Amino acid sequence: MSKEDDKGNTGGWKEFFWNPRTHEVMGRTASSWGLILLFYLVFYTFLAGMFALTMYVMLLTLNDYQPTWQDRLAIPGMMIRPKGQALEIIYNIDQTESWDTYVQKLNSFLGPYNDSLQALNNDVCPPDQFYVQEDSGEVRNNPKRSCQFNRTMLGECSGLGATSAERTFGYENGQPCVFIKLNRVIGMLPGKSQSPYVTCGAKKEDSDSIGEIAYFPTNGSFNLMYYPYYGSRSQVNYSQPLVAVKFLNITYNMDVNVECKINSDTITELSERDKFAGRVSFRLRINKND
Ligand SMILES: *[C@@H]1O[C@H](CO)[C@@H](O)[C@H](O)[C@H]1NC(C)=O
Ligand SMILES: *[C@@H]1O[C@H](CO)[C@@H](O)[C@H](O)[C@H]1NC(C)=O
Ligand SMILES: *[C@@H]1O[C@H](CO)[C@@H](O)[C@H](O)[C@H]1NC(C)=O
Ligand SMILES: *[C@@H]1O[C@H](CO)[C@@H](O)[C@H](O)[C@H]1NC(C)=O
Ligand SMILES: *[C@@H]1O[C@H](CO)[C@@H](O)[C@H](O)[C@H]1NC(C)=O
């Protein structure tokens, strides 16, 4: 009995794949299969078309010169140079190799700010006012020019002075320069009539050890003429303005936690919520063998 059943079963399976009586493959005739294939072909072609059309329309709305969505941070972040893995500058005055890389990094960082290059690439702009170069409607006012930020404006922190201490940005004689930049935000106007400026101080417990600080350019300000920034595609030669902070009398052989922040007449109060907005903190430690 079981033998007979088996035979019947296998016969059923075979018939399912190919039924010679009705000429059906897997329960459908050739024309039925054809219709199904045709249906899916049309269906997927339609989907692909929809996708391409949507993509095309979306790309049309994108602007090559400016991101459609930018974060609405009222206050941009700040960053220091030289910068390693962590935000700290630690070296020993008596060990040249401990500060030599800082000097090398700063020299290559400041290379593009050389006066000769700035004169070649950028404009001398009227100071203390925005350098506005708006597009008129759909007509792009491109390429947009940028303002000169000369390396010599960094004074004793330019790394160009006559003395060896100046050429090592003060690292050699324990009066190091740290450079501060404000993150770029397209279209940002970081002040009204007064240029925003940087001030640095020590965290409370280190306030006796930070010593006097000098700022370059004068007042530690980011001049208004470097704003607004129109994006790297529009302003190809843009030189981000810098503020150099020189520590003149910092206490040796101890950690000093420094915090620098931006002051602006459009920023009333630094938000406590975002601890990176408009400020940067770093650890500075200069060791000296007795
Ligand atoms: C910038 O000037 C310094 C000193 O004159 C020079 O050593 C350096 O090669 C220059 N950098 C560039 C990028 O021109
Ligand atoms: C920058 O340096 C160049 C070359 O020395 C000079 O012609 C130009 O006036 C300087 N620009 C500013 C803004 O000081
Ligand atoms: C950028 O600098 C180059 C010279 O290096 C200059 O020929 C060009 O006109 C500048 N472009 C703009 C938009 O300032
Ligand atoms: C520095 O600040 C003082 C007072 O705020 C101002 O009178 C002076 O013009 C500023 N100097 C520069 C170069 O911005
Ligand atoms: C440097 O700082 C020390 C205290 O850390 C102070 O006694 C000294 O007078 C300062 N020197 C100058 C030139 O300000």
Give a structural overview.
One of its GO terms (biological process) is intracellular sodium ion homeostasis. Pfam families: Na_K-ATPase. InterPro entries: Na/K_ATPase_sub_beta (IPR000402), Na/K_ATPase_sub_beta_sf (IPR038702). With 290 residues, the chain is α+β, with helices and mostly antiparallel strands. It folds into 2 domains: 60 residues; 210 residues, Sandwich (Immunoglobulin-like), CATH 2.60.40. 26% of the residues lie in helices and 18% in strands. The chain contains 5 helices and 11 strands, in the order αβββαββαααββββββ. The strands form 3 sheets. It has a 4-stranded antiparallel sheet with strand order 4-6-9-8. Strands 5-11-10-7 form a 4-stranded mixed sheet. Strands 1-2-3 form a 3-stranded antiparallel sheet. The N terminus is likely disordered. The site of one 2-acetamido-2-deoxy-beta-D-glucopyranose has 6 residues, from helix 4.
Condensed summary:
This protein has 290 residues and is of the alpha+beta class.
Main sheet summary: 4 strands, antiparallel
Overall structural class, as computed from helix and strand content, comes to alpha+beta
Q: Assign the CATH class of the largest domain.
A: Mainly Beta
Order of helices and strands: HEEEHEEHHHEEEEEE
- How far apart are the termini? 105 Å
Strand content: 15-25%
* Assigned CATH architecture of the largest domain: Sandwich
Q: Which ions and ligands are bound to the chains? A: 2-acetamido-2-deoxy-beta-D-glucopyranose
* pLDDT < 50 runs, ≥5 residues: 1-7
Q: Within the largest sheet, what's the order of strands?
A: 4-6-9-8
Total helical segments: 5
How many domain modules?
A: 2
Task: Give the proportion of residues in helices.
Answer: 25-40%
Using only CA atoms, what is the Rg? 33 Å
Topology-level CATH name of the largest domain: Immunoglobulin-like
Q: What is the mean pLDDT?
A: 88
The number of distinct β-strands equals 11
At the fourth CATH level, what is the homologous superfamily of the largest domain?
Na, k-atpase alpha subunit
Describe the global form.
elongated
